[in-house]
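ok so for the tutorial part 2 we go from a plain amino acid sequence to predicted structure tokens. step 1 is just haveing the sequence, like this:
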Amino acid sequence: MPDFDFSQVDAAIVDAQPNSLRLMRDVLGRLGIKKIEAISNFKDAAARLTGGTPDLVLIDADGEEAEAEAFKLVRTIRNDVNTPNPFAGLIVTTWQPTPVLLMRVTNSGADDLLVKPISPKQVLDRIGTLIRERKGFVVTADYTGPDRRKSPREGAQIPLLDVPNTLKLKAMGQWEAAQVRQRMATAVRQVSEQKVLRSAVQAAFLIEFARTGLLNAPPDRMALDHLARVPGVVDELVRRLPDDRDTTAAKTAARALRQLAELIRAKAESGTADGGGVERAVTLSRELLQASDPNRPLDAMVREVEAAVAGYRSRLEQLAQAKAAEAAKAAAEGGEEAKAS
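step 2 — the prediction. this is what the tokens look like for a chain of 341 residues:
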């Protein structure tokens, strides 16, 4: 491994366990990191880190409350528009790497997971990987972080963004403040642009998926659940719209879609299907698609959404069939045991 110089690296540790916090600080200090912020309270962590995000953050996720707060913090760092460095290296630490925790690490936007007890060599190896082999960033409606897919993505190809790796730049003596600021501004703008595009696609996807189920009597629960996500998606889209160009069309379509989605849901919850409202929501979602990406043909974007919905429905059907088969097998085995007894 190259001889890294960590003397200029800014690091932070978020851990509510005093002993673990002290040990981790000692490990980072032995690696040559001089500026280490130790945070023992998750309530303070978000404000302290988003006010001046360091190059490397280690976040403990032991215990139900800490786990929830840890991943909330990861998403805040990655997605808060005011975070100075949303591309910081984020490593989650734990004593118990359960399957659920592993999935949450993958889906949160964190870079890696370290299992305790942790040695200086383990930490150095993981930091080395972040320096040499960090993957490009992916931005979707509900994810910002390193690309974790091992297989090609369905539908439209989502670009990989080459974001600034301040940990690498400092550790390899390549830090130039003015250049990094320019690269950071460019990358943040690219993230926001992708967030707008993917949020528009996600809103259209949610409406298209819910479309049929909302017309049933009573409306399908799954359709209502998907419709309920639309307001949050369009709020994120509006929040990310740039100030340096006219975004009136996108704002108008997004706000109208948000209001209509809430109205349709309220009617559906009371047992009333609103066919006209649902079709208007489809139209508004497509207007939002076009306003968010005026350079792409609308019919191509609509086909992308329809293909994604079809693929999603197919996966849901496969899961349902697998569960039914498993239940039938369990019932059969139970019947055989009853006969034997």
